[in-house]
Design brief:
The chain has about 140 residues and is α+β, with helices and mostly antiparallel strands. It is built from 2 helices and 4 strands; from the N terminus they run αββββα.
Length: about 140
């Protein structure tokens, strides 16, 4: 029974770590991992992203666009990359019609990584203690 518990905890920790490394970065709230912004006269050549968390952003377009972060102009770019922590409003503007592609990746916190490592450690300890008990029972002597 303890072996099943150890394997289950170890597997949960490993799967959580795989989730943090593969799927979690793409699950940016309200946007997913990609966003397409069409800047044209219908939206006054302006669009925005509201981000909250630890998120990397990469904006790309064939035509130059202006980036404003929290209302302050950063500059004009064809490609812009940055990592933001906390709440930020990223505005994208252009003088002409263009399409801006946004790639978004969120970053797990150290606490989330620690949880997966702790689960893996606890599962491993349970499995190794179960193995030591089996050796004691088979030999009749304590395992050192």
């Amino acid at each position: 029974m303890r072996k099943l518990l150890g394997v289950s905890i170890l597997l949960c920790g490993f799967l959580y770590l795989v989730f943090l490394l593969t799927l979690y970065p793409m699950l940016v709230r309200e946007y997913g991992s990609h966003e397409q912004m069409v800047l044209n006269k219908n939206n006054q050549f302006t669009d925005a992203l509201y981000l909250n968390g630890d998120i990397s952003v990469r904006l790309t377009s064939d035509t130059p666009f202006t980036v404003k972060i929290d209302g302050e102009k950063v500059g004009e770019f064809k490609t812009y990359s940055a990592r933001f922590r906390g709440e930020h409003l990223i505005e994208v503007e252009s003088d002409q019609e263009c399409i801006v592609y946004a790639e978004l990746r969120q970053h797990p916190s150290a606490i989330e990584y620690a949880i997966s490592v702790i689960l893996i450690g606890v599962g491993t300890v349970i499995l190794t203690s179960e193995r030591k008990q089996k050796i004691e029972v088979n030999t009749g002597k304590p395992f050192l």
